[in-house]
Amino acid sequence: MNDLPMDLPRLRTLETWLLLTLDRVRQQIAQAERREQERQRGIEARPPEPEWMLEHGLNRDALPITVHVGGCHMAGKRRKGVPRDVALRALTEGVQACGHCRPDAELGFLDG
Q1: Cβ atoms of 58 and 37 closer than 8 Å
Q2: Same domain for 2 and 38?
Q3: Are strands 79-82 and 52-56 parallel, antiparallel or unpaired?
């Protein structure tokens, strides 16, 4: 059973439609490939995760409330990367250690 038209004018019309559709599909593929390349460049250009993080309270000038190991998914959005000595000093000054990532154990800081 043939599902294509038998006459030449309709076959030419179908051919034209298929070529236009194929061109649109190829354009979409090219756009998707460009987006993927941009995404990969963004991943490669991302700065490295800090080793230690201090999480701050709601106020911009608030003191740190929690110390985290870099990459801890429990850290809130108000955090910044700090060097090891700053994280250790924060713990000694009474800033709470995250109970999930345990930066106090990672830093070798034993409280009491």
Answers
A1: no
A2: yes
A3: antiparallel
